[in-house]
Amino acid sequence: MMVLEGMILLVPLIVILFYPREAKLSVIFLIPACLSVMAGLFVCRYGKQISNSSRLVVFSWFYGILLAAVPFLMYGDVTPVQALFESVSGFTTTGLSVLDVEKLPHIFLFYRAFLQYVGGLGFIMTMLLFVQEKDSAVLYQAEGHPDRLMPDIGKTAKVIGTMYGFFLLIGTAFYTIFGMPFFDSVVHTMCALSTGGFSNRMDSIGYYNSLPIECITVILMLIGTTNFSLLLLLFKGRIRDFCKSSEMRFLGGLILITIPILSGFLVAGGKTIGEGLRLSIFNAFSALSTTGYATCSYSGWSESALAVMILLMIIGGGLGSTAGGIKLARVCILMKNLVRNVRKKMVPDRTVLLTYYHKGTEKELLENEQIEEASTYAGCYILIYILGTVLLTFFSGCTLVQGAFEFASSLGTVGLSIGVTNFNTSTICLLIEIVGMVLGRLEIFVIFKAFLVKQRISDT
């Protein structure tokens, strides 16, 4: 992992081929990359194996985040916490930033986007594209990947990597066709697929003021927020099985309900019907997919409209995708259980009510174990969200709605901002958001298992 993460820092050097004037910046990436590779080779030979799979995952992420912060720090004009914040925001695919992207060199703009592209897959998944060992399946699951697309874990990683690369090529091509500069196209495609949201424009997607570009972005965000196993069904042309999925049906129903409501709030706030509908469609998808691209400023939005956006950010995207949040699958399970419990109150006591959950090709009876997992995670998520909101509101001096919006964006790894996060944000507020981003990306319990549970890596 240390060798791999060192090599990740070498990839941005490709940009120098197109922008040779930035060659002087190569040392900023070469020094930490080479040191990490050498340290990794040393540890491979003399180090001891980490016996806890969750601990190895957490180490990989923490080490990668610290290493990725070094180029930002060496570039200058940022504090160590700001450099760390940018690294965390990149690898966790959040997209909040404290940098002025209009002034950054191309190599750093590409670097930020590539961090999100790798972070979307995950370090373990990226490693499995090249190396598989006997403990690969345990690590794969420990990083938060619930499904195997193929019987072999190595083939699963390669299928996911192939799909990820294919959509990168397609997205870049379509962006370029519809008028976006090639460099911008690569950056925005990587960040849309990873549901990251980093942009090389201060106004994000709104900079282009183009309906076709917004439509392409929505499609890429949907791809990024969709479970990889469901994407494979689309690749195989099994559209009917894809549409049967409870997760996708819940996503469709949620969008059909929230977009008209959000449009109504925007129209009531002074937007025309056309403007309200266009803004609500794009920004609702951006919030729900936890991508974080924006087409406008939220400072003029009503609290009712912001509340809808907060709700969508908390729900989040697909389980097993690059998205954050509680996840559609868990919320869908909780809603199904709620409906079943309400129905129980209305039928005779001896009536048996069966509730099913569709995973595309599979139809499973909803079990107590699934409900317990979903409710436990959702409960912990909400408690952390409330605590983070209160702390961020207190230390930043913003309103409760602003604090709730900003921390929902951090914990959900979304990246939308109402203005609380910027270059002048205090260190304590940045640290609060960093904790939220890490907990949201690693799904809370991985960190708990790493430090509180003794577990052999060979355990299944």
From TrEMBL:
One GO cellular component this record assigns the protein to is: plasma membrane
- Spell out the subcellular localization from the entry: Cell membrane
GO molecular function term, any single one: monoatomic cation transmembrane transporter activity
Q: Does the keyword Transmembrane helix apply?
A: yes
Membrane topology, as annotated, equals: Multi-pass membrane protein
Gene Ontology biological process terms in this record: metal ion transport
**Organism's domain of life?**
Bacteria
Which keywords fit this entry according to its UniProt record? Answer: Cell membrane, Ion transport, Membrane, Transmembrane, Transmembrane helix, Transport
For this protein, the parts annotated as crossing the membrane are 25-44, 56-75, 109-131, 159-178, 211-235, 247-268, 305-326, 382-405, 425-448
Whether Transport counts among this entry's keywords is yes
Q: Which family does it belong to?
A: Belongs to the TrkH potassium transport family.
- For this entry, the protein name equals TrkH family potassium uptake protein
Q: Which organism is it from?
A: Roseburia porci
